[in-house]
Design a protein that fits this description.
Elements (H helix, E strand, L loop, with lengths): L1 H19 L6 E3 L5 E3 L4 E6 L4 H15 L2 E6 L2 H11 L4 E4 L2 H9 L8 E6 L1 E6 L12 H6 L4 E4 L5 H13 L2 H4 L3 E4 L2 H10 L4 E5 L2 H4 L4 E4 L11 E7 L6 H16 L3 H4 L23 H4 L1
Parallel strand pairs: 3-4, 3-5, 8-9, 8-10
Antiparallel strand pairs: 1-2, 5-12, 6-12, 7-10, 7-11
């Protein structure tokens, strides 16, 4: 009877393939004749909204090349760190700036081998649907007094919310407009509202210009206005990774992939020397932190 079950299952497999429309399927048949589907290796990557499209696109390439499924979790960096610390699950953490990665290091959540993925520059973004004329950050007080909506991401959990607040403080306008600011959960949500004109002006990472090139205009800050605020998006393998080898492989190949992209077309600045190709200054003018230079 055992032999009959074994033969019957093997004979039925081609029929199942035809019925289900599968082109290939891998099975293991043990000594008792039971059929097992091969287990697919997988890793989980935590990423901020600013890199969600890049990570999703690259994950498909990684799966095709290595046969490893990549589960991508997208959220504001602060919430990602909280999730990692609470669940103790996940293989890679990518943060929207260096500050949160240093925090993750201090908390013992990641290994100290950090990977710079791309530089990220804070900038003023203007919705083309708003017909707003904005030349510098000092103009925001006047625009707010006229009822225009100025948005930032939540500074409690989103790095660019914190950066936005500091940028406004340096310009001397934060106290003038703080009660008129519109706060959004993360840069992804804020960017979508900016695109459709619900928000007139926002402080966002430069990459948003490349998400919505026909809907958003960028006003670059002066180098001295963002010295120490410009940052980079950083990746690290978590202490909870069950496949550190695959996580290391993913990060190493991701860095190479980003460095091969054209920053003029994509906005992703993998190489330090490429910053001057998209911004009106080079990386030496904006006092980048050590994490971004190494």
């Amino acid at each position: 009877m055992d032999d009959y079950k074994h033969v019957l299952i093997v004979l039925l497999i081609p029929g199942l393939i035809g019925i289900l429309g599968l082109t290939s399927i891998e099975f293991l048949i043990d000594t008792h004749g039971y059929v097992h589907r091969d287990r697919v290796e997988e890793i989980t990557v935590y990423t901020p909204p600013t890199l969600s499209k890049l990570i999703n696109d690259y994950s498909e390439l990684f799966m095709a090349k290595h046969g490893v499924r990549v589960n991508v979790v997208v959220d504001a960096t602060g919430r990602l760190i909280n999730k990692l610390e609470l669940t103790k699950k996940g293989d890679i953490l990518i943060t929207a700036d260096h500050y949160f990665m240093e925090y993750a290091l201090e908390r013992g959540l990641v290994y100290p081998s950090l990977k710079r993925i791309t530089l990220i520059i804070p900038a003023l973004m203007v919705s083309k649907k708003s017909n707003v004329e904005l030349k510098q950050v000092g103009d925001l007080a006047y625009l707010a007094s006229k009822g225009l909506k100025i948005g930032i991401a939540d500074p409690e959990v989103a790095p660019f919310g914190r950066i936005g607040v500091e940028y406004l403080r340096r310009a001397g306008v934060y106290e003038l407009i703080r009660d008129k600011l519109y706060i959004y959960p993360d840069v992804g949500v804020l960017a979508r509202y900016l695109q459709v004109g619900v928000v007139d002006v926002a402080i966002l990472p430069h990459i948003i210009k490349y998400w919505y090139p026909g809907d958003v205009e960028i006003v670059w800050p002066k180098p001295e206005e963002i010295s120490g605020l410009a940052s980079c998006q950083v990746g690290a393998v978590t202490k909870y990774s069950t496949r550190r080898d695959l996580a290391d492989l993913f990060l190493n190949e991701l860095v190479e992939y980003v460095e091969g992209l054209d920053p003029v077309k994509t906005g992703y600045v993998g190489k330090l020397s490429d910053l001057s190709r998209i911004a009106p200054y080079d990386y030496g003018k904006i006092d980048l932190p050590w994490v971004c230079l190494s």
